[in-house]
Amino acid sequence: MFKTGSFDRTVEVVVVGFGNAGAVAALTAADHGREVLVLEKQPADRRRPNSRFSGGLFLCPSDVDAATHYMNQLVRLNGEVAETDPAVVRAWAGATADNVRWLTGNGGTVVQVADHGEHEFIEGFESISIYKPDMGEHPGTGARGWGYGLYEFLQGLAHERPIDVMYGACAQWLLEDAAGRVTGVRVRDAAGRTTDLGASRGVVLACGGFEFDPSMKLTYLKAFPTHFYGNPENTGDGVRMAMEVGADLWHMNACAARLVGHFPDSGYPGGVPLDLWGIEGMSGIKILYGDFGTGAGTGRRAAGPLRVADDVAVDVAGERVSGGIFVDRYGRRFTNELYRTHTLYYEVTDFDSHRLLYPKIPSWWVFDEARFARGRLVPDFYGPGGPLGEIRWSDDNHAEVERGWIRRAGTLDGLADQCGMDREALRGTVDSYNAGCRDGNDEFGRLPRTLVPLSDGPFYAVRMWPGGPNTQGGARRNADAQVMRVTGEPIPGLYSAGEFGSVYGMLYPSGGGNIAECIAFGRIAGDSVATRPH
């Protein structure tokens, strides 16, 4: 939006969004001596950015060259077209490799929990080390760190600097001068009043994705509906503002997603991650990534990081754990339930052009009494069922049966009727799965030690939808975090960080990728807006 005349207030740097990316960008610019103002859409007493919903793991490559190669393969489509510029990938690798040093240098403590990326068939995966933050007590668990603790730590660092934060301030339009330079932001407060804020050095967009904008999801994503868990106020504001000043877009059809629950009458409008194995709390993370030990150090390696697929269905006592199976809307199994956490979404996007529907949307998680009795079906350390308490879930799952969120029947036929599945198809699916358990040879390749037959009943099912933590799309950025025009050059005075215009495309490198990018590109954006000629 072209702006003439004076501003209501002018500072050097305006940062839009106060999640992890916005906090890091703001404190980095402030450490360069710049006057920084942060605009936060949410009120001060109701802040719930995606960063706060997150599990908080972040990656930090041990080898920049190997990590660059790994990421360059992940952003290639069909071996031909690269979704992300090589220079941006290199900047990502270099900056994320400094994440541990930067956090610990600012007083944080972290623990390494894995020494590999998610895609073990791609050279360089072994360079993707994953860390858990260990700052602050995690509400409800007594544990330290995780996403809630990391968010509070980064907010604390920002508050130690002379950074001004305006809460309840919704950025509406980017303001430009006659030469096309971004010079400020038009903001609307909770009362509907508008203010024009000048930014003499530039604006950093760190305002998240479009997880809760139905129109954008329908237009850009591969399947509909998709239910994300995170901040319901991530409605694509940054996308619209950037488009209006001529920004190019990328990765709009990409998201790091899987299958999630969705319970509209809970009061929470988004998706809810599900705990398939009943071990995804503190014990589950030990199984997935190794034992943290006690007394976290400063970037020390945890004892014996493990590969996910090796031990996921065996708890800390060595007991085999029943996790159940996934079936489509007709009752047919379609995947290995030891799925890659951030790519299962793509398996459910096939559209039946004859029936005019997605056969796997919705899908169903089918399990037996062994899993039901093991504990709550929703994780308590991240997501809407975590410390923020956006959705309440009972410890024994009985209240959720009464509410209809969990379907229960004494027989498979009864369960099929409740879920609208074909009886014969569901019975055949379970018979085939149980036979594979007995033989130790699963048709979808699940490891023998994870194959626990479904019992004689009662049986349970939870309806699932595509969804996950966040979208990846937004304005294209360069290696200096500058937002790019559709004509190929940077937009002067405009920068981005975090999941808004993420560097990740179709494939996500590993758990912790987004938080790592928040820390890394938050620093790049903060450095650039503070030091580049203007």
TrEMBL record:
Residues 13-251, 320-514 form the FAD-dependent oxidoreductase 2 FAD-binding domain. Keywords: FAD, Flavoprotein, Oxidoreductase. Gene3D superfamilies: FAD/NAD(P)-binding domain, Succinate dehydrogenase/fumarate reductase flavoprotein, catalytic domain. It holds the Pfam family FAD_binding_2. Its cofactor is FAD. InterPro entries: FAD-dep_OxRdtase_2_FAD-bd (IPR003953), FAD-oxidoreductase_2 (IPR050315), FAD/NAD-bd_sf (IPR036188), Succ_DH/fumarate_Rdtase_cat_sf (IPR027477). This is FAD-binding protein. It comes from Phytohabitans maris.
